[in-house]
Amino acid sequence: MNFEELVNTIQDWTLKITVVAWALVGLSWVLGWALRGAPVPLSRIKRLGHGIVEDAVIAALWLALGSAVFYLISVMAKNFLPQATIEVKPPVSAR
């Protein structure tokens, strides 16, 4: 596996993990608001929902920062790859 394939593999896995993480953030956000706004008289459930929403917001912040850092690293790694050189030799003349 050469360096370019390694960078592409890491970028692919990072993208897949980031999509799953955003899905979990969205799910916890919806679940938190559902618990917080539930028409139940138990304040513990409402506080639990509030805590889940706060955790989802913090997770979204760190996920956005982390994915931006990984994106910048992958762009820098791709730009600093050694460029392929092709040697062109003049044709051999037969005498």
UniProtKB/TrEMBL annotation:
Classification via InterPro entries: CedA1_arc (IPR049689)
Ranges that cross the membrane: 13-35, 56-77
Keyword annotations from UniProtKB, A to Z: Membrane, Transmembrane, Transmembrane helix
Listed name of the protein: Uncharacterized protein
Organism, as annotated: Ignicoccus hospitalis (strain KIN4/I / DSM 18386 / JCM 14125)
Lineage of source species: Archaea, Thermoproteota, Thermoprotei, Desulfurococcales, Desulfurococcaceae
